[in-house]
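Submission sheet (multi-component)
Chains listed below:
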Amino acid sequence: MTRYIVSRLISMIPTLVGVTVVIFLFLRLIPGDPAVAMLGEHAGQENVERIREQLGLNRPQFLDREALEQGDVKGFFDSQYLRYLGRLFRGDLGASIHRRIPIAETLKERFPATAELALVSILIGVMVGVTAGIVSAARRNSVLDASSMIGSLMGVSIPIYWLGLMEMMVFAVALDWLPIGGRLDHDIELEVVTNFYLIDSIVTGNGPALANTLQHLALPAVALATHPMSIIARMTRSSMLDVLSADYIRTAHSKGLREGVVLFRHALKNAFLPVITIIGLQTGTLLAGAILTETIFAWPGIGKWVYDAILGRDYPIVQGGTLLIALIFVIVNLLVDVSYAFIDPRIHYD
Amino acid sequence: MVDMESTSERSGAGIPPGEMGLIDFAVREHRSLWGDAWRRLISSNTARLGLVIVAIFVLSAVLAHFFWEYDPKIDLDYSLKLKAPNLVATEEIEGIHPFGTDKLGRDVFRRVVHGGWNSLRVGIVAVGISLLIGGLLGLAAGFYESMPLSRGGRMVLFGGIGLVLGGLLGWIAGQLFQALLFCLLGMAAGFFEELWAGKPERTLFFSGTGLLLGGGLALWVSPYTATACGVLGLLIGGLVARPLGGSLVANIIMRLMDIILAFPGILLAIAIVAMLGPGLDKGMIAIGFVGIPVYARLVRSTVLSVVQEEYVAAALSVGVGQGRILFRHIVPNTLSPIIVQSTMGLASAILWAGALGFLGLGAIPPEPEWGAMLGDSYRFLTTGAWWAVLFPGLAIMLSVLGFNLLGDGLRDALDPRLRL
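Outcome: structure written.
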């Protein structure tokens, strides 16, 4: 097991190096000079040059062949990309070009916002999705089954940005029950500890803040949960149906066990493996930031942040943010694979 | 045998087992694979519904594009700004606007119908791009993972390695023709695969040649460059001397796919559009690119399972060539999963296109496109203009739903055992 995890971690390295190259190349290919973006279009040439030098943008991108010709081996490797990699290994993500705030600092605020929203959404998605899937499988071809499957088909077909807008229209604008966006009302005081506002408000015993956070979470979380919920429901149903036709389920029934026991103790346990995969993949996707949901609900998460940075040519934010997102993706996938061995004793990694 | 017995059991008539199969065979009319699949498809209610929805959208988009003239550039009328839907003409509003009007007084119904042309076009082209590139990559990966490389294949592979790595070396030395020399070296290594096979002489010969080709020619640039290039040449030579097989090709392709998959799709698509500049055609490229790994993985796994089949082993054993096996036996058997995935892919491509348009990265205004229409109008929700947001979104949802229903139906029709 340990060997498997280690080998998987090692095989992640080329992928992640490739990811850094892709991020680096993409940013250089996007038209526009960050130095100009920073100083404005009317900046003097020498100022632009000075900033370019400060940011290291005057160095060659990958390797400096002219330095090598002069016998400067260190200079050969002193390029934009390798400098970036070197800083990365020292844990230095750099600072935003426009605002000069260190990336790591902003991440500390932004990532918890995204993670809180993602985890609440996936929780809703798993609870509703798995329940709907089990009910559909147990009452196959009933009205319940049909309606939950139609619902889940609608769920995978609905554009979440549109669903978010519709929710907003009904619950925030027309009925005025819930806030229209943001994480917390301005007039609510909350002592920030972890930046997970749910945890913070519970830890500091702040009742009003907890209620307010939950109100703010409701609309974006439901919008974001819809897609995973539908996929989980469909997967649970088909996986349960597979298992329910197995011989040991018939045996369990014929022993006179109650249906609940058969469903949960015998069937669900064995049907859960593909469901876990889907849950894992969806968690990865949601943790990676929901650009659209965050945009609509003015949620201060990493998705919106990276999106704005791409359009604003803020290289360090895009590099840091995207790398974090890719890292989460890859790690979640690894965790999903490893979790198989714990859930299903037939699976060994040797 | 088992099948025949169960058939006779079910029919319950007094026909002896064994003969039932014969009768069944004689009575059943002969149908083609696709004819059978079509019958199964239209016998399912949900698939029929999907087919109808898809047909309505495709027909309305195509008919509108060719027979209902619309020039988005001159279509505006401020006096009709944000009017609610009306089904009968009144004194105030002369025209009939079943879906209301938007912030520039344009008829939302008209724009939704015309927007369909753009959204469907994006979907089809994007799926075409992912399918073509991803499918070919997946085919290559799956095929070379399970088949030994022929001599020609080895020459291409090793020549390619020589060309790419030699290109790096040639760039450092400023003499790009070195890349060609290394390409030739790689091809030679592929051609003479028997030469001292497995012996140290082979490594010695090729890495020595690499050292000379790289270092020697870089000498007249500078001694430092020559040293670096010599070392690189040595490594490249040593690499091509090794018995690298087809699994290397498969590995390279799938690692590249992993890299693309490590990014959330929407982020990658945004980055590509940011690089290429906004526009519907750029959106197609972006969405198509993001979908490549999906098809590559699907085709690879299908090929891997088809190669295991006995008919492939039989074809191999009678000496059928690799190319013929690939195109006669393997490609036709990957078609049904590809068709299913492409239909579902159309659904998600329409969703993606809408998302890009919503963010202002898709169609350039005033071109009608569903996502862009949403992005244009959602700021007016607080003023109560729900119609400008409701209908374009409904169009996206219904068309996506149609393709999803059709995809589900196709999956059941083409292969009941297949579960994606």
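Remark: Confidence is low (pLDDT under 50) at residues 1-13 of chain B.
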